[in-house]
Amino acid sequence: MTGKYISNIKVCLSVFLLLLATTAVFLMGGCGITGEKTLKNTENYVDISASEAYKIITEDEGYYFILDVRDQVEFEDSHIQGATLIPLAEIKNRLDELPKDKPILVYCRSGRRSSEAADILIKSGFQKVFNMLEGIQSWEAKGYPVVKEQKNQNIESTTASDENGDINTISVDEAYDIFQNSKDYLFIDVRSIDEYADGHIEGAVSIPVDNLEKKLNEISKDKSIIVYCNGSGCNRSVMAVKILIENGFNKVYNIGGLGIDEWKDKGYPFVLGY
Fold this sequence. Notes:
five-stranded parallel beta sheet; Oxidized Rhodanese, domain 1; 46% helix; alpha/beta; 12 strands
């Protein structure tokens, strides 16, 4: 009886030690997972919608630092009031211009560049970073207010006469018909390189309007040229057409309507990337 009793005790003790070891491993593993989750949550930026961004900006005016990471031309076309412009390509070299004692709300046109910028900020030690999903295009679609630079307003005042004079404007549907049925046309996207990467007409080449004069020798005068940006509300394609005409390009057309956004909405061939 005594030997059997001792044997039972040993078995129970072995089971207890096994359970104890298993529990310890489980707890250690759990702590590791929890630690990883906590680390991830505290070192990630937060995605918010345009509606959420508008709410926090208007309710806590001046509390959030609003960062626009598009280029100068896009910023001048329209931006959120109070926003500071630091293009994505420059942000790593201008981190000292950003406050670490305020939450930072980052936006671009569609949300791609702002997510890259937000990631850079987090990795650089900024702890409260918010990325506005779908960018300023979503903001404007909801009717929220934007600021337009006076410089562009002056350009807009001459656009109507330009379109009735030297500039030939075609609709998105007409552009698509040309895209389908002719090989003698060159499509040029005159937005920024990052906007081009966000989505462009299939086969279009990227030449931002700011670089156009430097790239004229790369453009054939044997083909008709179709220039586009974001449609009638975007002056960059009008500026590009004027530059081309002044430099001897005779067959130049500007896509009107809503430009690339309308092209995309109608399901016409659309490509992402560079």
